[in-house]
Specification:
Layout (H helix, E strand, L loop, with lengths): L4 H15 L8 E7 L2 E4 L5 E3 L5 E2 L4 E4 L4 E6 L4 E4 L4 E8 L9 E14 L13 E4 L4 E4 L3 E7 L21 E8 L2 E5 L2 E5 L4 E4 L7 E3 L28 E6 L1
């Protein structure tokens, strides 16, 4: 059988696709870094990350003490991780041509983060397209600026990072504060809407959340001065800010 130039091109293209490195399918990258950050891949391997390193679905990303990192995703979303933080990219799907397939899910194991949402969850009416999962509740974003604090009971002899000490007087559980817009705070098969200026609390994944008076000592996520560059949402990536702290 004669091999035509078209068939040769097709074979070469197929070989090229097979040889493409994993970063060709990355969901985002490390945009800024101050300190040390690592990623445990889905296959169990662990690697140190640097600026411009790729991040993939399934990655468990950890920052060390005194380390900050900003992740940028393909839809324009950004997540800034504070020291002693660990998250997992559980799901991510973004195709500029197919808004109906948008999907982002991140699990916050410990530490804290601040996120600027991108196009995922904004292009359709599917509010489940963007989810932040904590130990006792799931947070659905409805175009809002909010913070969430997840405090776990200290284990005997557990070391508590210095920057987490102000939260020790708060009872264990998840606290959510809304600065702008509204969120859906979901636990115990109940959805609690939380609006501007309100604080909600969830003590157990099997119990419904409740609105409470604002505690006076809820901390905020504050990156070091000069970290990265001040980035405001553009017309394309008209994002909203969220903050999460887990202890």
């Amino acid at each position: 059988m004669q091999v035509t130039p078209v068939r040769l091109f097709a074979r070469a293209l197929g070989t090229l696709v097979l040889l493409l490195p994993m970063h060709a399918f990355a969901q985002g990258l490390v945009q800024y870094l101050s300190g040390t950050i690592s990623a445990q891949r889905a296959d169990g391997s662990v690697r140190a990350l640097a600026e411009r390193s790729n991040i993939l679905v399934g990655d468990v990303i950890s920052t060390e003490r005194d380390s900050y990192a900003q992740l940028r995703f393909n839809d324009g979303g950004q997540v800034t991780l504070r020291p002693n933080t660990q998250v997992r990219i559980e799901q991510y799907a973004y195709d500029e041509r197919r808004p109906g397939g948008d999907n982002f899910a991140m699990r916050l194991f410990k530490g804290g983060l601040r996120a600027l949402t991108g196009l995922i969850g904004k292009r359709t009416n599917n509010r489940n397209a963007y989810r932040m999962v904590t130990s006792t509740a799931t947070i659905g974003i409805r175009g809002t600026d909010y913070s969430v604090l997840d405090i776990k009971p200290p284990a005997p002899g557990q070391f508590t990072p210095k920057e987490m000490l102000p939260t020790n007087s708060l009872p264990p559980g998840v606290y959510v504060t809304v600065i702008d817009g509204q969120i859906a705070f979901i636990a115990g098969n109940r959805e609690q809407p939380v609006g501007i200026g309100q604080v909600a609390f969830s003590s157990n994944i099997n119990l419904p959340p409740q609105l409470i008076p604002p505690p006076p000592n809820l901390p905020q996520v504050t990156p070091p001065p000069g970290f990265g560059r001040a980035q405001r949402p553009s017309a394309l990536y008209a994002g909203t800010v969220q903050e999460c702290i887990v202890q």
